[in-house]
Amino acid sequence: MNALFQGAIEMRQIDKAAAITEINNLINWQEERKKWHQDKTRQKMAAENSSSSGGATVSTPPPGSTTFRSSDFGINEADLADLDDDDTGSDSREDSEEDANPIAAEQKRRAKKQDHLRRNAGEPIKPEVKQLKMLREGFLSMLRMVLAD
Prior knowledge:
Helix 4 (92-100) crosses helix 5. This protein is mainly alpha-helical. The protein is extended. The two termini are 18 Å apart. The protein contains six helices and no strands. Helix content is 64%, strand content 0%. The chain has helices at 2-10, 16-52, 77-85, 92-100, 102-120, 136-148. The longest helix is centred in the N-terminal third of the chain and has 37 residues, at 16-52.
């Protein structure tokens, strides 16, 4: 990566100061997003624990279930959350329900939108990247060379 970066600077493909600023912004964004996600997960777990400890017996999770993470399988947790959110496909039953009661259908749509907004509340906004996108072709060619060996 360093050779790719230095080569792009020497060939004047990218502006060094702007690229360094973009890299620092991306690092800061990733740290903020990680902290945001951990805080959100902590809050969710605390809410689940407080609601389940209201006198009811708490069932123990299956062995090993607490050790598995989506990252173990190469899946980003944000992608899994997006899959949950992408339940917007409407089938014929939903269409007929909308025709029968448009007010209820609108309330349901707004509730889904509100839930989506609640899940993403406070999430740091990803910084804009321009300079680093110019490194793509060089990166791909270097990657092909490494994988060819």
